[in-house]
Specification:
Length: about 200
């Protein structure tokens, strides 16, 4: 019995446990089965339990997709809120926000360069979401990437470091509500109290 997922993911979980039908309950290595399921890139947590007279239950919590990163060869990698690559996709077009950092490594690995953008992706209010095409990170040779939003049209919004995100998004909202967007190239909200 698998809880938390259905269809092909449930079948993948069953296969991944390595448990075989007909094995006596006492002979099952539940810890190894739990570890194996937890290694699936899209699984946040798992627990494999047994109950008498003959039931094995696998409870699975899935990672929640928050953004997609381009792969550089077409398609993308879907990441969760911890930056873990959880699935591949054939396109970056879709419902998930795009972080314009090229994915690296394999599924299950943390996409370190995308980490600064995740709090912004998760904080964007519904009224600003339609204005944002992509989330970018500009690295200047240091470890700290500066956040840049590509807005609808040709404008960009510079958020700077990943601090004071809500205030910066509020400042962006205020600027977008007051200006003619056809003649703006850059909106600088790195200092939320002094948007330019």
């Amino acid at each position: 019995e698998v809880n938390g997922v259905v269809g092909t993911q449930a079948a993948e979980v069953i296969t991944t446990t390595g448990l075989e039908l007909g094995t006596p309950l006492l002979d099952l290595d539940l810890d190894a089965a739990t570890d194996a399921v937890t290694e699936l890139p899209w699984v946040l947590s798992a627990e494999v339990t047994r109950s008498w007279p003959g039931t094995v239950t696998v409870d699975v919590a899935r990672r929640t997709p928050v953004a997609v990163l381009p792969t550089g060869v077409g398609g993308g990698v879907i990441i969760d809120g911890e930056g873990v690559a959880i699935a591949r996709t054939v396109s970056t077009l879709g419902e998930l926000p795009v972080i314009t950092v090229t994915a690296s490594g394999g599924l299950g690995e943390i996409q370190d360069f995308a980490l600064p953008a995740i709090p912004v992706v998760q904080s964007v209010p519904a009224d600003l979401d339609p204005w944002i095409e992509t989330f970018g990170i500009a690295y200047d040779g240091s470890e700290n990437g500066e956040l840049v939003l590509d807005l609808v049209g040709t404008a960009v919004a510079e958020l700077g470091l990943g601090t004071d995100i809500e205030a910066k998004l509020d400042a962006l909202r205020a600027v977008l509500g007051r200006v003619d967007r056809t003649c703006i190239a850059v909106i600088d909200v790195r200092i939320a109290e002094l948007p330019l």
